[in-house]
Amino acid sequence: MKKLLLLGFAIATLHAGALLGQTFTGTWQGAIKAPQAPRGELRTVIKISVNEGDKLAAVFYSIDQGARPLTANAVTASGSNLKLSFVSLNGTYEGRLSADGNTIEGTWSQGQPVPLTLTRATPQTAWTIPDPPPPPVRMANPDPGFEVATIKPSDPDRQGKLFTVRGQDIVTINTTLNDLITEAYSIHSKQIAGAPSWIGSEKYDLTIKPDAPGQPSVAQLKIIMQKLLAERFQLKFHSEKRELAVYAITVAKTGAKLTKSQSDPNGLPGLFFGRGTPGVNFNVRNATIAEVGSTLQGSILDKPVVDQTGLTDKYDFTLKFTPDAGMLFFGPQPSGNDSPDAPPDVFAAFEQQLGLKLGSTRAQAEVLVIDHVEKPSAN
Fold first, then answer.
1. How far is CA 319 from CA 163, 246, 284, 335, 354, in A?
2. Residue 28: its H or E element
3. Are residues 247 and 340 in the same domain?
4. CA 361: distance to chain centroid?
5. Residue 264: CB partners within 8 Å, gap ≥ 6?
6. Fewer CB near the terminus (10 Å): N or C of the chain?
7. How far apart are CA 50 and CA 26, in angstroms?
8. Which of 200, 235, 270 is the last residue of a domain?
9. Rounded to whole angstroms, how far apart are CA atoms 368 and 230?
């Protein structure tokens, strides 16, 4: 009798799994309102299937943003409720299936939540998913320069700043010469000495076209920027070693809690901050811990950051933290950051979420001493 009961339970469990797959499997599509997009919306397709382990799997396509397929890291279904998590996007989708099984009413969250209603697609209604663009061709020249560079004063009313690569062009927005030097030489502003005050106050927008084909790596990008600083800003300096107050990143006693990136190891890293609900999300994709430290020291921390972890892989993660009042990069903070649900400060978040410690110490560090610099030459 016991064997029969167990067999019956197993059959019931498999049947429930089959029904679950039949409920959610298929192609779903819907549009996210996005005023900045050319169409005013971003068309989204999510394909849900049952994998070899009889578990639900999902693939996400943003067909107005290149349609690169992104596999969900977690798919959770309970009754008519569905939740999908995409670590590479720092995004989640949560929705509820309609009674007729043809609509999922839900919310897409990627920093800020927005409504997203998905409709089951048929062969007649399914949107065409374009082939994703080929991976960028990497720049072969190990010592590139720049063919042309445009430098313009920034809009004085613009907030924030940006460093990015568009195609092969290097683009910065709302950046001071101080920002450009710290980015080009991977240092903190406190590692610059002897500079005139204007290098930290006058802001510029730059578009730099390299003199070699292909997308530059991080190292090549820095070489190009160093050459631009020397030619267009007449930057001349010498280096000294000095003992400075720094933040050191080390591995905590619990061990690192990091997910190795599955992206192209030769690809550019993605490191950007976004508003959380509440707090701030530091989104890291395909980046080393040294690159994480460089971004923190260039954006929010008041001292240089030294990587002492010994970790050399590239990682994906989202660090959720509440910025201190002194972190002016983020501007005034929403009142929700005082709520019990607000994440910890960046130091506690490092240890709790990443298994790393971010602590104050003193260490020998390189200091860049300015010998000569000028405001940028004409375009």
1. 20, 21, 8, 20, 8
2. strand 26-33
3. yes
4. 28
5. 135, 286
6. N
7. 10
8. 235
9. 14
Per-residue pLDDT reduced to its tens digit, 215-250: 899 899 999 999 999 999 999 999 999 999 999 999
Distance of alpha carbon 239 from its chain centroid, rounded? 32
pLDDT tens, 128-144? 998 877 777 889 999 99
Q: Does a structural domain hold residue 65? A: yes
Residue 9 lies in a domain: no
164 and 100 in one domain? Answer: no
d(CA 261, CA 292): 14
CB 365 within 8 A of CB 246: yes
Helix 218-232 / helix 177-185 crossing angle, nearest 10 deg: 140
* Measured distance CA(105)–CA(98) in Å, rounded: 7
Domain count, the chain: 3
Determine whether 2 is exposed, middle or buried from the number of CB atoms within 10 Å of its CB (0-12, 13-18, 19+): exposed
Report residue 154 as tokens. 């920034």
Residue 327 pLDDT level (bands cut at 50, 70, 90): low
| pTM of the predicted protein model | 0.67
- Residues 47-93 have pLDDT tens digits of 999 988 788 999 999 998 888 888 998 899 988 999 998 877 768 89
Dihedral of alpha carbons 8, 13, 18, 24, sign = positive
List b or e across 163-175, with b for residues whose CB sees 16 or more CB atoms inside 10 angstroms.
Answer: bebeebbbbbbbb
**What CATH number did the domain enclosing 18 receive?**
2.40.128.20
Last residue of a domain, one of 120, 137, 156: 120
Boundaries of domain holding 255 = 243-366
- Are residues 228 and 249 part of one domain? no
